[in-house]
Amino acid sequence: MIELSQVTKTFGEGETAVRAVDDLSFRVPRGAFWAIMGPSGSGKSTVLHLIAGLTPPTSGSILIDGFDMARATEAEAAALRRRRVGYILQTFNLLPFLTAEENVAMPLVLDGVRDGEIPGRVGEVLELVRMSHRAKHKPTELSGGEQQLIAIARSLVVKPSVLLADEPTGSLDRSRGRDFMGLLREVNDVTGVTVLLVTHDPVFATYGDKVLRMVDGKLDQEVELTEPPVPSRAAASS
Amino acid sequence: MQPKRHRAPGDGGNLRFAVLALVRDRPEGKHGYRLKPECEALTDEFWQLNYGRLYRVLDVLERSGELTVVEEIQTQRPNRKIYRITERGQRSLDDWLLQPVSDQSGPLRDELALKILFAKGEARARLYKTIQEQRSIYFKRLSQIGRRQKRLKEAGLDGRITDLVMEGAEQRVRTDLEWLDHVERRILHGALD
User: What pLDDT, in 10s, does the model give residues A19-42?
Assistant: First the structure.
């Protein structure tokens, strides 16, 4: 669960200060898949940075599973980010000298997980994103779409409760973007990880349950997308 | 405006040709009960399939000699109808496929554009709300297109072709959304006051 209460983020000071996020409040329930859209400069990426704890809010609170990022010590926040928050970006940031499976294993190695446990967990997430057959390949031997799948596997290997995705389809063509979004939806359904996606593409935004539209750092509109119950068609056919 | 060549009263419009095409794709004959889900997969919540209309279309196609129907006698269950396309049906489908699209859209076909054009006073003040409602409709439509794509694939239609058709539908909604954002920016910045 992600909960923002009256969050404001101001960059700079005095007359040149820019209010990127302005008194923003919303709560994403556990296991939900929401998308944030908005024109450039609307503050949507800043929201993800704030939730990931990459930058502190100027005021307000941000809770992840009830835990307040802003009030945590540096070490606590780092541990929370590592274990609870997965983050995927438009650029995949895979280490070029490691194989796909070594890249995926990296967060576990950094977190001091037992060596014996690592291969099983890596194998599991590679299977989830259907990349087991590419485990031994280096990033340069993979397509953009495949690299993005490895990046998502790497973020899922720590079993985060929240997955933040900032324009993850930005460097993929439309058809690979579509495949990727289908998989992200499936990951959400299968693992129950809460997904918050930032995208400028309305088609990809509608893979989620809800679209939040931001303008000038504020919430401008919410659109609920969950399917309404289908009326019985049998009655209409008789 | 162009005359709508294929829309004689009661002939079922494009549904007629969709039915012909779905039957044609099964040279061994098409069961009537299979047509329902397949036609349904072609429609969406904005254009709901009325089964009465489907049966009228089948009836018209049978009487015009474009389809033949054979009843399969069943002992345990109700009899099944099997439809096959005739040469005449094949010809009329080919004709339709080769005709330019008659459903031309123009600015005056668009209800929202009309409302923006004619909004005054209270209606103009409410335009922002109208835009938000319309945006919400577009997002829902995109989400429905995605679900419809799934259904078309499940109904066994060629995935590569359904992708292209759906991408066309998505592209139109995307363009509508962009235009809506543009209108909203102009209104918020006072260009219409």
Answer: 999 999 999 999 999 999 998 889
